[in-house]
Amino acid sequence: MKPLFAALALALAAGPVWAADSDSAAVHPFSIRDLVMMDRVGDPQLSPDGHYAAYTVRVTDYAANKGLTSIYVLDLDKGGAAVKVVEKGSSPRWAPDGQSLFYTAAKDGVTQLWRRNLGGTGKGLALSAGAGDAITDAPLDVNSFKLSPDGSKVLLTFDVFTDCADLACTKERLDGREKDKSTGTVYDKIFVRHWDTWADGRRAQLYVADVTAGSQPLLLSRGIDGDVPSKPFGGDDEFSFSPDGRTVYFDARIAGKSEPWSTNFDVYSVPVDASAAPTNLTEANLAWDANPLPSPDGKTLYYTAMKDPGSEADRFAIMALDLASGSKREVAPSWDRTAGALQISRDGKTLYTTTDDNGQHPLFAIDVATGKVTTLVTDGSVGAFDARGANRLLLSRDDLKHPADLYTADLHGKGLKQVTHYNAKRIKSAQTGDFEFFTFKGANGDTVQGYVVKPVGYKKGKTYPVAFIIHGGPQGAMTNSWSYRWNAQTYAGQGFAVVTVNFHGSTGYGQAFTDSISGDWGGKPLVDLQQGWKAALGKYNFLDGDRACALGASYGGYMVYWIAGVWNQPWKCLVDHDGVFDARAMYYDTEELWFEEKENGGTQYDHPENYERFNPINHVKDWRVPMLVIHGGKDFRIPETQGMGAFTALQRRGIPSQFLHFPDENHWVLKPQNSVQWHETVNAWLKQWTAKDAK
Question: Taking the model in full, what pTM does it have?
Answer without folding.
Answer: 0.95
